[in-house]
């Protein structure tokens, strides 16, 4: 079962065991993780589920698409090389130990 560690801006962590096929965003919303706004509900329209994918997380996620890349230019927090929209990070058995850092602001 995939495990996601959400690192909050203050350094505290929330760890959730999630079902394969769930996105990092949906897991956060269902698990009450603060800092993931997800205004559009995961429809890749708002960029309020922006996270920084930890560099040590296995590379099992697909690369950034053109649509995601465009939205990442509109995030409230600075875009970094490891910025992703958590609604686009679908968990599977290969993403068993995913770590994401939540930015200071989403809006």
TrEMBL record:
Any one Gene Ontology cellular component term annotated for this protein: cytosol
Source organism per UniProt: Streptomyces phyllanthi
Keywords: 2Fe-2S, Iron, Iron-sulfur, Metal-binding
2Fe-2S ferredoxin-type domain: residues covered: 2-106
GO BP annotation list: P450-containing electron transport chain
Alphabetized PROSITE patterns for the sequence: 2FE2S_FER_2
Name the record gives this protein: (2Fe-2S)-binding protein
Superkingdom: Bacteria
InterPro entries with a match to the protein in the record: 2Fe-2S_ferredoxin-like_sf, 2Fe-2S_ferredoxin-type, Adrenodoxin-like, Beta-grasp_dom_sf
Keyword Iron-sulfur attached: yes
Family as reported in the entry's similarity comment: Belongs to the adrenodoxin/putidaredoxin family.
Cofactor(s) needed for function: [2Fe-2S] cluster
GO molecular function, one term: metal ion binding
